[in-house]
Structure formats: structure tokens, C-alpha cells
What we know:
The structure holds 2 protein chains of 2 kinds.
Chain A: H1 10-13, H2 23-31, H3 35-50, E1 55-57, E2 70-71, E3 73-75, E4 89-92, E5 99-101, H4 102-115, E6 119-122, E7 129-132, H5 139-148, E8 164-165, H6 179-189, H7 191-195, E9 205-208, H8 217-220, E10 223-229, E11 234-235, H9 237-245, H10 250-254, E12 263-265, E13 270-272, H11 282-286, E14 291-292, E15 297-303, E16 317-323, H12 330-346, H13 353-360, H14 362-369
Parallel strand pairs in A: 8-9, 9-10
Antiparallel strand pairs in A: 1-3, 2-4, 4-7, 6-7, 10-15, 11-14, 12-13, 15-16
Helix pairs in contact in A: 2-3, 4-5, 13-14
Chain B: H1 22-27, E1 31-38, E2 41-46, E3 51-57, E4 62-64, H2 65-79, E5 82-85, E6 91-95, H3 101-110, H4 142-157, E7 167-170, E8 184-189, E9 195-196, H5 201-204, H6 207-213, E10 219-224, E11 227-232, H7 242-246, E12 250-251, E13 259-264, E14 279-286, H8 293-309, H9 316-323, H10 325-332
Parallel strand pairs in B: 7-8
Antiparallel strand pairs in B: 1-2, 2-3, 3-6, 5-6, 8-13, 9-12, 10-11, 13-14
Helix pairs in contact in B: 4-8
Residues 193-194, 213-214, 216, 218-219, 232, 237-243 of chain B line the site of one iron/sulfur cluster.
Amino acid sequence: MADSNGKQTPLLDELEKGPWPSFVKEIKSMAKESPMCQDLLGQLEKSYGEKRGYWKHGGIVGVMGYGGGVIGRYSFLNEEFPHVAHFHTIRINQPSGWFYTSDAIRTLCDIWEKHGSGLTNMHGSTGDIVFLGTQTSELEPIFKELTEKDFDLGGSGSDLRTPSCCVGQSRCEWACYDTMQLCDHLTHHFQDELHRPAFPYKFKIKCAGCPNDCVASVARADMSIIGTWRDNIQIDQAAVKAYADGGMNIERDICGNCPTKCMQWDGKTLTIDNSNCVKCMHCINNMTKALRPGKDRGATILLGAKAPIVDGALLSSVLVPFIKLEPPYEELKDLIERIWEFWGEHGKNRERTGELIQRVGLGNFLEAIGVEPIPEMVAHPRENPFIFYEEYLEEGDEEE
Amino acid sequence: MATATDRRTDIGPPNYSRFLPPVIKKNYGQWKYHEILKPGVMVHVAESGDKLFTVRAASPRLVSIKKLRQFADLADKYCGGHLRFTSRNNVEFLLTDPSKIDALIADLKAIGHPVGGLGNSISNIVHTQGWVHCHSAATDASGVVKCVMDDLQEYFTQMKLPGKLRIALACCLNMCGAVHCSDIAILGVHRRPPKVQHDGLNKVCEIPNVVAACPTAAIRPAMVDGKQSVEVLEERCMFCANCFSVCPAMQMADPLNDGVSIWVGGKVSNARHEPMFSKLAVPYLPNTPPRWPEVVQAVRTIVEVWAKGARKYERMGEFIERIGWPRFFKLTGFEFTKQHIDDFRHAGLTYKRSAQLRQS
Ligand code: SF4
Ligand code: SF4
Ligand code: SF4
Ligand code: SF4
């Protein structure tokens, strides 16, 4: 059996083999100087032998004045592996787009070397920088040093989780709004909601610059902000021709894959019936030099995605078909606040926005947040005839 | 000890503009097009004519500060100190001088980080914490990912697939990282109702909360050996572990029954087909650490069936929709079982409700 000095880990050693980067090598690289990493290896080896985890959840730990950002983690095997008896996670709010300078990376490493295991996730699922494994006594010092270097904690628990975004206009020609600026703006604007859990459950915001949705917002965010446009796709006919001359089968592979069949190629000119284009991105993705999104750009706002727990998985659905997104983003922030207000009042404990909408009905939800129902919000109108009305006419009532 | 007054709080993340390379600052919002030059290398060309070269390398997500410092050194050596990470845990180096690309790739390889993941390839596997760090894991995360990618690495470093393939892993139904819309999703599953630790349950947990946590109303308050506790109606339990999330005395981990399920055909992008959920392909494979050969084999089978049969650009879900589920099961050799048929809310919507069937 692996002892707490982590000397023998025959099962984990198998994961040092093979061409893909090895997380075991990463942990082992720290084991010499970090007793925490030694004990982590020991406990993990045991998990591999016994086919089960040994972590206890929860326990409220955190930094003063914050309710989120630290995930308490304790080992069931605290006697066998005392150095991971406490092994808390710290979430640090990433800069928009996950850009760093080498200096910023070194700053983070220096802090973490002093106060924790030296293991990280770059990044966690929600987008945060994750520092993996430290003790309660280190939390305040870490927080102090992080904030001195202009970093702050991310969200956890029933709060606004750390918003995240794609690279957007910093590198991507398809971005229909400035995802990094919006993400940064919302994060700063809602600092209180992010650090002090006061919601029924978590709320995630993800900003994708176009319908390719590189941050999976439609599946992962309570609010999915997906860039789009409402005028015509920009076409460079000469560049289209060049693709055709280069051997691309535009008729079959581009027009044939258009979901609304709104494109035509006659061998010389590509025509698009833009009124039927649903902005799926297929043609643009594959003719990057010839086609570009239109110039009247903004975003579609969708609401309600979540993983299966508690009441089944959901994808986000359309709330606002098109919104212009320019600073200071008042219209969007106002909408977010109206949603939170209704959810805060009517959401049950651990009920995500999407589940609340399912429970009260999208129609009622829209009424509550003051948004008009429109056909863009549904795949199709209802099929079932059990229609609710709040009022009915009595004999003698005036018809309106 | 710091007091509340001399602490900086609520400052939020540092503004991204501090970390952007000059070429990005100059051409922000002014990019014209991009091209993939070779596996893992792309160029973005700005209206100004400026070019930004990106080299994408795999990372195991769990990285030590030693590795991060090596990345920082490479960024200094080749990129004026600029790098970023992707939503799928890859690391990207941002260059303006294309003559440095090959040397950077060689240096990355030398420290064990293959370059690829762009275009028609398998990008890195989005995944979760597993036995390394989470309380509710039904399988390990990093280990399974390592084994699957060791096997599929050729599809990361080359672009020989018909379209994009996105794999994700979550070690329990909480699905940190929402794997439920992936071309292939690997999902840890429990298969045994919670083992209630009656001793002291009512001290660590609020019994009404535990009862309320169960989506199928399988939990009710009970006196057990004179102790206030709860009991589980086992035939109602669907092993979601929601009760364990609110109460550690509802033990879910069970080496005999925990394992891995595999789901296919989900996507999040809007290209061609609308986003869709992944659907069940294999309900259960045992946990077989350290190398999970059954999982590795099943994933490879799915990848190969798709790679062989899919049309250009066709994602897994689009491919299966075209050929039909019966043929998917035939081609993969996976057994179709009772477990494949939904029995939760709105299950009827997933039944085949027409006579449109391929009969041969
Ligand atoms: S979501 Fe669209 S804009 Fe954002 S990085 Fe992806 S392709 Fe570019
Ligand atoms: S973006 Fe999609 S829907 Fe619009 S023209 Fe191109 S392929 Fe058709
Ligand atoms: S998916 Fe489940 S087990 Fe895995 S990290 Fe998330 S909560 Fe933990
Ligand atoms: S595992 Fe889920 S279904 Fe089973 S008792 Fe717990 S909450 Fe209920």
C-alpha cells in the first residue's frame, strides 16, 4: 500500500505512460517539496485500488466577508493522510478570455507555492483559475496577496458564478459584440451577487460572440448571451469563386448543409436569401475568407440551461431574439435584475432559473419580468389543449 | 490578522486589457479572417494586414506551478510573454513571428505537450475533479481522460476526421462542466441507493432538507433503532446523489456498483443542426483503474464508426440522425437494453412515433 510518503504508487504510475500529458506527472513533480502532494498521491493510489473517492464535502470555509470562492474539502482518511486532512479549493476569477502575461502567471504561481499544494486547474469548469488544495489557515493570507496583485475570488454556492466568455473581438472575426468587455463589465457590476450568496441556487452567465457558442453557453449557462446579426451576410464573390476553383463543392457542402436552404450557387455567384438565414454559421465557418456576419450586430439572449440535478437537464431557450450590446449595457443589466428579483422571491431552495420557468410556465414567467411573449420563444405553439385563463366572462359583462 | 478595513475586497478580476499582446490591442475588433495552417497552428489576419499566429497545445487541466512556469518561460521565449488558455483546457501561445512556430512546437513536445486540437480534430476533453478532489465522484476524471486521450491522440495531432468531435467527462450527475451536449460524453454513475448512516444523521443534516432533496420522493423520515433518521424507498431511487449533496450521511460511493456510462450525439454550436443533448449509448461499464480499457475501447468504437460513415462536416448527432439509431447500435455492436428507454419526465416524447423505419 502506498504510505504517506507517496513512495509506491504502482497504479498511478501506469498513468505516467502514454503520449497524452499526465496529471500524475504533474502531481509527482510537486511531491518532493509538498507533503500535501505526497499525501494526495497516497490517497489517490488508494482510490485507484479501492475504486472509490475519499473526500468529504462541504463545511463552510471562506474568507472574511465573502460567502463564496472557497470550496471546503476534507479527507475521510485524515489519519492515514494527514497532510490532505484539509484540502480546500480556491476559485480565482479569471481575466476575460483567459489571457495572461508570463508575469501574471508567475505571480499566481508564487502565491500558490507559498500557501498551498502548488496544483491548479487552468481552468475550472465555470472558468475560474482553480487552486487545488490548501488549509483553512492559509485562506486569508492567500486572499490578501491575491488582491494586492489585483486578483479576486470567483463564485461558489448559491450566488452569481464567475461569468465567462469566448475570445470574441480580441481574436475572432466572427464576434458580433465585445464578449470580453461585457463579461468583465457584468462581473464587476455584480461583485456583491458574486461574493455573497443570496440566490435560491447558482446563476451562470456565459458570453459567446457568435452562434458557434465556443463557451457552450446554451448548455451551461442560466443566461446565454450569443452574438448574432440581423442584416445580410457579407459576401466577397471573388473569394467565393476562389474556394470553388480550389475544389470546394459549394453546392453540396455549403448550400446543401444550410438548414433553411436559403443559399444558391450557380457556379459564378453565391446568393443568400438573408430573410431566411437563421445565422447558424455553417457557411461562414467554412468559407472564412469569403463570408462574414452582417454589420448590424448584437446578441440573442437565452435563458435557463442546466445540468440534470435536480429536475433534469435543460438547454437555454430564447428570451430576447436580438439586443444591441453596447456599454453601459443598461437594458441587459435591468433585465438580469428583473429575472433575479422574480427568482429570488419565487424560486425554491436549489431551484435553477430554468427549473423555475418549467414550474411556473414560461408565459407566467414572462409576465412577471415584464417581457411580451413572441413566437421566437417557442419551437412551436402548444400542442395540448389544456389552456389556462385567469378570468372568464359572466353574463352581462361587457365584451372588450 | 487583517481587519476588514485594510483589506481590498470586491475588486473583481484584473482587466483583460493588461494581458493582451500588442498585436491584439491594435487590431481588436478588426480581424478579417483566419486560417488553419497545420494541426494546432492558425493565423488570424487583421484588416490592417497584421497577423497573429496561435499555437495550441494540450494540457491535462490539472497542472502544477512548475509546469505553469515552464509555459511562462516559453511565452517569454517566443511570444513576448503572451499566452492564454481555452475553454477546453488547452494552452495557446500567441506569436507574431511565424519563423518561431516550429521551435516552439518542438519545445512543447519536449515537455510532453502535443500540439493540435484545431479544425476537424478531437480537442481536449473537458472534465471534472474525480477522485483527485471531489466528494461525489462515481469514477475518476483525470485518469479516464488520460487513458482515452492516450488512445485517441492521433486525432488531436492530426485533422483527419470528417468534422469536429467534442468529448467531455463528468464524474457524477452533477456534471460540473455540463457534458450533456457533447459528441461523446463519459459520465460517472452510481447504481446503488444511498447507504444511510443512521448514526448521527440528524446531527449533521436537516432531515426535512434531506427529504426535500429527492426528486422522486424516495426519502422519508424514519426512526431507526431509536434514532431520528430517514429511510429510502429503494425501488424509487434513480441514484442521482442529490440527497448526498445536501447530507454526507447519505453515502453514495459504492465500488461494486459505481462505473461509467457513455452518451453520444450532443452539440452546442448552432452550425447546421440546432444544439442537442447527448443520448445514451452504453448505460454501464465498470470502473477498471488504472487504464479503464472498456471505456477506452467503447469510445474508440464510436469515434471510428462516425469517422468511417459521416459526411463532410457532419457531427456525431447529425450522423446518427441520418443513419438512424438502430443502425448506430448495429454498427457499434452496443447492446440496446431496457435502460436505453427513458422513463423520467416526458419520456414519451422520445419514443418512435411513426412507421418510418429502415427495414433492412
Ligand atoms: S463563439 Fe464565435 S465569436 Fe466566440 S470565439 Fe467562438 S467562433 Fe469566435
Ligand atoms: S448562416 Fe447558416 S442559415 Fe445562414 S445562410 Fe449560412 S448556412 Fe444558411
Ligand atoms: S461532476 Fe460530480 S463528482 Fe465530478 S467534480 Fe462535479 S460534482 Fe464532483
Ligand atoms: S440518490 Fe437521488 S433518487 Fe436516490 S434517494 Fe438520493 S435523492 Fe433520491
